[in-house]
């Protein structure tokens, strides 16, 4: 899919204030600093459409970006940043759970996972929550440039093993990406395109 236009529409902390249009949307979620905003810039081929930072906690609101006048990419705040309560439940800010529970336009969530790390409890819990809520999701492994190309397969295999050990019967659809090298761009855009056409 070719991206012709990508425009920032609105930032807010309330799901009721999100755009009213009934366009399909795809949301990016994951731990703070995993690379959600960078991935949105990479996919849309814009340097600064979504704001990024080397410090965790940059994105604080729900941000809607309209693509090709036809669908939305949604940048969300990260979870798991230690400023919030230690209790895992409180780590998912209420407006983020509201978004996932009430946003009817949400077609698919992309859960971003840093490819360098072992499976983290907070990500496994979040995916379990999505599964229980029957929200379709796919995994995006980020920062693949930080490990050697030969290590990618073994990291993914280790992750898969952890998913299966956590009651998943199969590994969800996944993508390997590097925002630095634009790896995985075509595969993700193709995936979104396919869903939009169905
Ligand atoms: P929050 O908004 O704080 O939740 O973070 P985020 O998930 O949006 O992360 P962001 O895109 O702001 O990126 C965090 C840091 O990781 C920045 O310093 C990025 O440059 C870096 N980063 C993101 N993606 C990649 C990548 O694919 N490769 C490398 N090497 N660095 C990356
Ligand atoms: Mg961000």
Automatic annotation (TrEMBL):
<keyword id="KW-0131">Cell cycle</keyword>
<keyword id="KW-0132">Cell division</keyword>
<dbReference type="InterPro" id="IPR019987">
    <property type="entry name" value="GTP-bd_ribosome_bio_YsxC"/>
</dbReference>
<keyword id="KW-0717">Septation</keyword>
<dbReference type="InterPro" id="IPR027417">
    <property type="entry name" value="P-loop_NTPase"/>
</dbReference>
<comment type="function">
    <text>Necessary for normal cell division and for the maintenance of normal septation.</text>
</comment>
<dbReference type="InterPro" id="IPR006073">
    <property type="entry name" value="GTP-bd"/>
</dbReference>
<protein>
    <recommendedName>
        <fullName>Probable GTP-binding protein EngB</fullName>
    </recommendedName>
</protein>
<dbReference type="Pfam" id="PF01926">
    <property type="entry name" value="MMR_HSR1"/>
</dbReference>
<keyword id="KW-0460">Magnesium</keyword>
<feature type="domain" description="EngB-type G">
    <location>
        <begin position="22"/>
        <end position="198"/>
    </location>
</feature>
<keyword id="KW-0479">Metal-binding</keyword>
<dbReference type="InterPro" id="IPR030393">
    <property type="entry name" value="G_ENGB_dom"/>
</dbReference>
<comment type="similarity">
    <text>Belongs to the TRAFAC class TrmE-Era-EngA-EngB-Septin-like GTPase superfamily. EngB GTPase family.</text>
</comment>
<keyword id="KW-0342">GTP-binding</keyword>
<keyword id="KW-0547">Nucleotide-binding</keyword>
């Amino acid at each position: 899919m070719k991206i012709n236009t990508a425009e920032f529409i609105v930032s807010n902390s309330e799901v009721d204030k999100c755009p009213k249009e009934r366009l399909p949307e795809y949301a990016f979620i994951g731990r703070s600093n995993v690379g959600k905003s960078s991935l949105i810039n990479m996919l849309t081929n814009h340097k600064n459409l979504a704001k990024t930072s080397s410090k965790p906690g940059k994105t604080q609101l729900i941000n809607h970006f309209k693509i090709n006048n036809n669908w939305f990419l949604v940048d969300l705040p990260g979870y798991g940043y230690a400023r919030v309560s230690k209790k895992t439940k409180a780590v998912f800010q209420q407006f983020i759970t509201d978004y996932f529970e009430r946003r009817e336009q949400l077609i698919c969530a992309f859960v971003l996972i840093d490819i360098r790390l072992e499976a983290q409890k907070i990500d496994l819990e979040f995916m379990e929550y999505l599964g229980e809520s029957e929200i379709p999701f796919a995994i995006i492994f980020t920062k693949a440039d930080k490990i050697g190309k030969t290590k990618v397969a073994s990291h993914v295999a280790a992750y898969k093993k952890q998913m299966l050990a956590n009651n998943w019967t199969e590994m969800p659809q996944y993508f390997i990406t590097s925002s630095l090298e634009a790896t995985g761009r075509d595969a993700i855009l193709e995936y979104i395109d396919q869903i939009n056409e169905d």
